[in-house]
Amino acid sequence: MPASTSPAVEDYLKTIYGHTEWQSEPITPSVLAGKLGVAPSSVTEMVKKMAAAGLVSHVPYGAVRLTPGGTTRALAVVRRHRLIETWLVREMGYAWDEVHDEAEVLEHALSDRLLEAIDARLGRPDRDPHGDPIPHADGTRVQAEAVLLSEASVAHVGRVVRISDRDPAVLRDLVEVGVGLDTVLTLTEATPDAVTVELDPASLASAAAAGRADAPGPAPVASAPLHLPRSHADAIWVTA
């Protein structure tokens, strides 16, 4: 199978793209190895092959960056993954903390025809269950200006636009306390270990009334200070 179409290369492209989607620091081979769970030597060899195929640019010991052609390929893989996640949540009854691994398998197997049918069936969504933008077929995407909750200033008021799916346990914890996509919160206190926020009851009620499967969260609760560990605040992006 040509390097540009192999599942392994697609995983590399998606990981490189995802690393800089919500922050600007480029990915290094060592970080790439950690994210993919492979040996650094394996990353070195694959990056060389991808560079030869025109998918990435790389200098020894430096960052790995997608070329324009690599970005186009990465967006196609990302589109597949996120549409599948959205389909699994909305149509197949999966919880938002259960879809990542399933999508990892399915994204390499779905035909373009089936993917188009899924996109149409879902109403051509702009975001997946975690708030990540779903690229359109032409590569365009809609991404909100956002800041990490852990990096926001005290008194910042923002709407949750993305919650990282890196740790399923964090997703489950946030559901339990009422934090999901479009929850409006105010940061009232921040320490090195935790943050305290207040949730806007109106946003909770709106999400519950809409019954959106792509914005998980429990029934509305009374507004009260909510203490979140730093690990959870590091997973939440709110409008800037």
First-residue to last-residue Cα separation: 43 Å
Largest sheet: 6 strands, antiparallel
> How many β-strands, per DSSP?
8
Binned strand content: 15-25%
The stretches of 5 or more residues where confidence is low (pLDDT under 50) are none
Strand order of the largest sheet: 3-8-4-5-6-7
Helical stretch tally? 9
Nearest-integer average pLDDT = 89
Instruction: Write down the secondary-structure element order.
Output: HHHEEHHHEEHEEHEHE
Short description:
The protein is of the alpha+beta class and 240 residues long. The chain is 42% helix and 16% strand.
Topology overview:
Layout: H1 7-19, H2 29-36, H3 40-52, E1 56-58, E2 64-66, H4 68-92, H5 99-106, H6 112-121, E3 146-148, E4 157-163, H7 168-177, E5 184-190, E6 194-199, H8 201-210, E7 225-229, H9 230-233, E8 236-239
Antiparallel strand pairs: 1-2, 3-8, 4-5, 4-8, 5-6, 6-7
Helix pairs in contact: 1-4, 2-3, 4-5
